[in-house]
Specification:
Layout lengths: L1 E2 L5 E2 L4 E10 L5 E9 L2 H4 L13 E5 H12 L15 E3 L8 E5 L5 H14 L4 E9 L2 E8 L13 E2 L5 E9 L6 E5 L9 E5 L1 H5 L7 E5 L6 H14 L3 E9 L15 E6 L2 E14 L4 E9 L2
Parallel strand pairs: 6-9, 10-16, 12-14
Antiparallel strand pairs: 1-2, 3-4, 5-7, 8-9, 11-15, 12-13, 15-18, 16-17, 17-18
Helix pairs in contact: 2-3, 3-5
Length: 303
Amino acid sequence: WRVLDTGLSRLVRTYFIRLIERETTAQGRSTITIGGVDANDLLARRIVAAAAGAAAAEKTDQADDMINAIAREQLGASAATGRTWTANGFSVAGDLGLGPSLTKAFSRRNVLAVCQDIALAAYDLGTAVYFDVVEDTLDSFQLRTYTGQRGADRTGQGTPFSLLRGTLTSAAVSQNWTAEQNFLYVAGQGVEADRTVVEVSDASAIAASPWGRCEGLADGRSYTDSTSLTSYGRVALQERKAKRKFQALLADGPGARFQLDWDFGDLLTAEYDEEQFTCHVAAVRGTVTPDSETIEARLDYAG
């Protein structure tokens, strides 16, 4: 919890304590260090306990609903006895069906890593999908999905955050083609000549230069048919496209107060080098001492 400038207290986050260290130095100074993880760690405590090809290990669905289904089956209401945390107060919010359709296979993989891959795949296909295990009440947690942004859309509110206005402390922008692959051979099951292979490509990226065709291989051996391979290949193609990147540090201060003017997951407008960028508040770091509080956030390009 923290107290805002308005005098109201607001919850920042709930963490599970996972580390306690006590130390005494040669000079007699004693310290206690407490470390913790947020509630998304509940997802990291389960794997997809299903064989390849099983309904629980391969799905075609909208990205946000697929994340929900995996959580329900591996630690929620549909999980086996001994694996479900429903009685502990864990639940999964209702399906929204707002993400892009995907085909994914993930037998025996860590649930948190699978959900992250699905969210990244949705983002690469042009729709930002987020998930978060949040405090439903003070003693229960709920997995929720979000489309567009994790928090509020503040892009039309006030003036853009910038170095000149003192609300940004640093900023950088780049356009990077070094790892680009725009023509993929997507290889499925089988061996050598008997292996199923489909081709996917980005015609506009290839046409950008006479030397523009950059080939690569996408290993899709978890998929059993050409339709699933093509869907997987389209996601892989988006992941390997040229990257435009903008990052900045946002400082908590007048006109940019944490939990008042912005919060984790919000969508903001930043300005740098006479160009405006739509950004997510991707990470927040805070330092508290007996005399002060310092908070800064990392902004990532959301284009």
